[in-house]
Amino acid sequence: MKRRALLRGAAAALAAAAGFWALPARPQEKVIKITARRFTYLPNQVTLKKGEPVVLEFASADVVMGFSAPDFNVRADIVPGQPARVRLVPDKVGTFPYICDIFCGDGHEQMGGTIHVVA
Ligand SMILES: [Cu+2]
Fold it and tell me: Per residue in 47-76, pLDDT tens?
């Protein structure tokens, strides 16, 4: 009885180890670099895949800017000289706007871009 229980324990441990080793290596997250300058983002269109994690890395070429994509609940301050990173896992397919949410001068209201999420 005791031996069988031990064997069962060993089998469970082996199965757990096999499961552990079967886990795929965490893929390197894709980084998309976006430069913000008055009053645009470059690029101002990004295409992402649903469910695929991505890091948006922002740099400002002039003044303090914002980045806000309300559909994905992410935002960042973009301070010159300090790259700002936002991690995003798109959970829906479609076309979603993002905007600058820090007043950066005349033209600020038009500053934005588009995130396309494909299946
Ligand atoms: Cu702005």
Answer: 999 999 999 999 999 999 999 999 999 999
Residues bordering ligand 1, an ion, CB closer than 5 Å: 100, 104, 108, 111
Tokens standing for residue 78: 């973009």
Q: Whole-angstrom Cα distance, residue 46 to residue 2? A: 60
Longest dimension (CA), the chain: 81
CA proximity to 67, closest of 118, 111, 106: 111
C-alpha 46 – ligand 1 centre gap (Å) = 19
Residue with tokens 């588009």: 114
CA distance 11 to 14: 5
The single residue listed with the structure tokens 């101002």 is 44
Q: Which spans in the chain are helix H?
A: 2-22
Give this prediction's pTM: 0.76
Determine the residue type at 17: A
